[in-house]
Amino acid sequence: MGLDSKYFDRIRTRRKRPQEPEQGPPTCQWDGCDKHGTHRAPVGRNAEGQFFLFCFEHVKEYNKGYNYFSGLSDGEIARYQKEAVTGHRPTWTVGVNKAAKHSPLQSEVRSGAYTRVRDPFGFVKDGDGRGSGPRFPEQRKLKTLEAKAFDTMGLGANASAPDIKRRYKELVKMHHPDANGGDRGSEERFRAVIQAYQLLKQNGFC
């Protein structure tokens, strides 16, 4: 094949690019130092992800005096440490988000059961579309004296206010000294019932 063949015109060769000079490691950023900056050091608060580059000697010197909370008061430092427990995300105290109590469960929404349930007689939901009660039954956590007061009146911890008042009237009538001929035991029982009722009333049970 001759050199003047048409096939030579179709051959393209890639031109060699001039090689760029290799850059060495950066210089230490410590003032007046010409050594290689091979060690990273954090810039500081409000500059997360940014670093200085120092040589080994100067990064040790920098870390000795580094203080992330520099410029903050003791109160600001305490607040930062408290928020760090939750990853600085907002939190709510118990009972603030009341709408979640009546909202459907995530599994109900995902399956579509919450929207497809027909309840023409309102057994499941009341007039405003909310459930007739909480999804999880709430139980009272009684203190020692409260539990003793319920026991004195012969009632369970879930007794309602009308039940407590009704039981109180029954016991007062039953153990009143006039109705028992001044019996000493009945008088002590009468006094215990009154004290138990007063304690439950003061603590909001009736």
TrEMBL record:
Spans annotated as Disordered: 1-33
Q: Which InterPro entries match?
A: DjlA_DnaK_co-chaperone, DnaJ_domain, J_dom_sf
What spans are recorded as compositionally biased (Basic and acidic residues)?
1-11
Cite the J domain residue spans from the record: 148-205
List the SMART domains.
Answer: DnaJ
- Record's protein name: DnaJ domain-containing protein
Q: Which organism is it from?
A: Rhizobium lusitanum
- Family annotation (CDD domains): DnaJ (cd06257)
